[in-house]
Amino acid sequence: MRIPLSWLREFAEVPSGATAEDVMAELVKVGFEEEAVHRPSDTIRGPIVVGQVLSIVKEPQSNGKTINWCQVRVVPEGQEQSLTGKGIDPSGVQGIVCGAHNFVEGDKVVVTLPGAVLPGDFHISARKTYGHMSAGMIASVRELGIGEDHDGILVLSRIGLDPQIGTDALELLGLKDEAAEINVTPDRGYAFSIRGVAREYAHATGTVFTDPASKVSAPAELSGGYGVRIADDAPIYGKPGADRFVARTVRGVDATRPTPTWMASRLRLAGIRSISLPVDISNYVMLELGQPTHCYDLDKLTGDIVVRRAAAGEKITTLDGKVRDLDAEDLLIADESGAIGIAGVMGGETTEVSDSTVNVLVEAAHFDEVSISRSRRRHKLPSEASKRFERGVDWHVAGVAAQRVVDLLVELAGGTADEAGTDVGTMPAQVTIPLPAGFATERIGIDFSEEQVVTSLEDLGAVLDKSDDGWTVTPPSWRNDLETKEDLSEEIARLVGYENIPSTLPVAPPGRGLTRRQQQRRRLIQALADAGLTEVLSYPFVSKAANDTFGVAKEGAPRQAVKLANPISEEHGFLRTSVLPGLIEVAHRNHSRGFRDLALFEAGSVFLPGDTMGTPSIPPLGVRPSDEVLDALYDGVPDQPLHVAAIMTGNDSPAAAAHAPRAWDWADALDVARFMGDVLGVDLVVSQGSHQAFHPGRAAQLALRSGEVVGYAGELHPKLLAAHDMPARSVAVELNADALFDAAADVIVARHISGFPVATQDVALVVPQDVPADAVLAALREGAGELLEDVALFDVYVGKGIEDGKKSLAFGLRFRAADRTLTADEASSARESAVAVAAERFGAVQR
Predict the structure, then answer these.
(1) Which residues of the chain have pLDDT under 50?
(2) Is 733 within 8 Å of 646 (Cβ atoms)?
(3) Which of 150, 358, 808, 843 has the most crowded CB, counting CB atoms within 10 A?
(4) What is the pLDDT of residue 87?
């Protein structure tokens, strides 16, 4: 909401020297966020004065254009020119070249003298052109930044002005005014008006507020006016779409009269362009009082006005010239010819006020917020009127607003008002709110006195009735957001002052803090980031094909997924059962933009529905559901374990001098999986795996010691990579982090490091090709006994010297004792024991 300061001063005691910044600083105290300052004088500076054209000499040019060589008086005759500077004529008569032809000798115009600056940082100076020294410019509204008309010069008499020569044109045109723009939250629609903001400014400063509605003398009752009927017999949103409609008639208006400068400048500062006098008056009253109004050409109406819902197949051409298909939920203003407006949103073209309009019917109505909001969204038709109606308008101000429009049409457009009028509808029931005496103190944490409570609420405009344990509060009609005692408490705190609320840091109860699961999650994610992987976030919405590929290991296996009722696109109509599809999309997007060497990871929930999906009924509001009902609700919620996935493409490091980068391979994906296990203290069992999303020969299955499979790692399937336009040999890993958390020890105890030297032994064993290397490694670990510190596979060989159907596995064994230095014989003996167990289980033979 933009608030011109000159307008605000009419109803609030704003100091004469206060700026827009000063006003916003006060409004911040009562909860309005600062947005911007609109100050025309920042872009336009004088000397810019009123001048009178003394003579015009038309001079045809060789280019076919005719220019006017004008003599313009800019100082009253007989007075000396007080301005000095290059190009300023001391006589007060300036010679100016002008290309426009819509003015004549004797017209008073706006003259920008040398030294002036116009919007767009356009500096005016004396310069030679068309054989003359032109010392200034006769300005148009577009050049002054006050309109779009560029057809000719701004002639002041045509906008109803006859100022003295030499008058400051910036002051005359309202260009020295300024506006403060504030952000109005949706629950405070009353502040979309000068009336509402002036009241809040008075609250903030403790000064007097003058209600603009009190300055309008509206009749207490109206009758005998234009026929109006509210016929919303089947309310769609629980209450009628309209509950008040005021109509007033003004005859004999001159719609071609110019809008007064003071009104046009205020509208412009408020962000609304001047259109025509009747429309400008309607907009002016809306900004002043917060009540949208509408002017109809009375002679274009046919029969009585009816407020009703749209009929099937009905259409309307709105004021913007577009034909709109109406919905049965749309609330309309109609006459016998059909729809003449979408209620509270935009009027119709057929009854539009034009220059030929003589008789005007003024409408000021009160519409249901939800109905207007739905129509505005349905037709994608935001308007200043709908912005106010959908946030709530004061029911009682409709008659005042209609009278204000009538008064201005009589005063400015020369019309005559009918004494008769129309006012139909039913006033809504008043809301009363019980407020216990100590409730605001308990709610806010400040010891409010009774005087503070009463004064704050009465300043709002509320009516208080004292009761035994507090008050019964009737909120003012313009505050439809006040419905509960909590709302009243917040208003008391706001008006007493947010700065009076103490800043007290609550003391956390002992024993609280991050849960074990939260600590594990943070530790895992931080460790991956510290290891050089980049965390990303992707959408949890995927296609059916993605879930079919990544959701189950075996192609064609049964799989369930949650289908979205309102997906962002049909291609992403399901919740994910794996994190990898979104991660691949992120990698592909980065790859397509030239980022080829990637190591990305994501931690996020997957959605695994069980046999029950949802619940047949929703519990009623206002009552706590029973434990049985809650259990039924939770049973219908899909399991949502946390998965952590990573994908690596390209090389592990950028190329550099004397450094050849290495391409990521399946072993790196396996290392990331083992690393995640190590961080949590979980020993993962690695075995040859098979998953339709991974390469058939380069995938590992990852399981817990209990046998529960928790994920897969390896190279992604070549066909899948090709389909996603991804680099060949991209590798990935995905683990069920929740399963790792459950399997992790409560405390990870660091292994004691012996001070005695290590003894290393290598062994190469030939085993059948179908024997997993991890199983052989487990046999070696078991057979080596307590002296074994570590065992690792470092080579797999198949080829010359190895029998067909077999492979050679080379392991490095590290032996160490806690209390002595091992001899070579002790290490060799432990190694032979390890080999013996492998030979017994798998027929392993030393190479």
Answers:
(1) none
(2) yes
(3) 808
(4) 86
